[in-house]
Specification:
It is a single chain. The protein has about 100 residues and is an all-alpha fold. It is built from six helices and no strands. The longest helix is centred in the last third of the chain and has 21 residues. It is globular. The termini are far apart.
């Protein structure tokens, strides 16, 4: 399972259906190589410090660990491709430092 799909599945299981739908949509857009995908993935609704997917806390510690790992993988890929937003880069740096 790809990181975006993992995030969507974990969000769905953790009672965050709206965010899960957003991540499934992004995963489908990535697969179809839709223009604007990377910009949408870098949005503050995904990476913002508050009211975003990255700011959510999952209730189960094991799911939270998988969730953070998948988010890190996505942020890392964005960084490697040079398409990261300021917020995704900040998330990547925080997670890399921890």
């Amino acid at each position: 399972m790809l990181p975006l799909e993992t995030i969507a599945e974990l969000l769905s299981r953790s009672g965050h259906p709206i965010h899960a739908t957003q991540m499934r949509s992004l995963a489908a857009r990535e697969e179809m190589r839709i223009d604007g995908f990377w910009e949408d993935l870098g949005a503050s609704s995904v990476w913002g410090a508050s009211d975003s997917i990255a700011s959510l806390q999952l209730p189960d510690s094991e799911q939270e660990q998988h969730f953070r790992r998948a988010l890190f993988q996505v942020a890392e890929e964005m960084e490697l491709r040079g398409v990261g937003s300021a917020e995704s880069k900040a998330y990547f740096e925080r997670m890399r430092a921890s």
